[in-house]
Amino acid sequence: MVTFFYQQHWCYLRIDRIKHRCNITVAAHHNNYEFSLSCLIIPKITGLLPNCELDKQSLQISSNITLADPSFHTPARIDILIGADCFWNLLCIGQKQSKQRTAHNAKDEVRMDSSKTFGKPIEEL
After folding, report:
1. What is the C-alpha to C-alpha distance for residues 2 and 117, in angstroms, rounded to an integer?
2. Number of domains in the chain
3. Considering the domain boundaries, does residue 19 fall inside one?
4. pTM to 2 decimals?
5. What is the pLDDT of residue 53?
6. Where along the chain is composition biased (Basic and acidic residues) (predicted)?
7. Residue 53 belongs to what domain range?
């Protein structure tokens, strides 16, 4: 997945060029799901999120749901921003795929189409 930024604005804002990247493996705490990512290293992604403490009880999250981040309601630093190319794969973990087109597997079909990556990986920064 690639996002474009107009060069003139880049120069005007004096944004530094990205100088480093790394390859990481992200693994779930509660099952054996994992995937690999190539990440561009930047000084900061955003400020603390959420920007204020959320009332976790008012969200009424079912007790049978295992959260990836049990302390999501407390403001904290964002360490990684996972791109849209991985979004549907994460959202649909554990769902079975079918070759037949039905209403039940429409989400999987959209997931497979939307997660195609266009272009080539960045080789030189």
Report:
1. 9
2. 1
3. yes
4. 0.57
5. 95
6. 105-114
7. 15-88
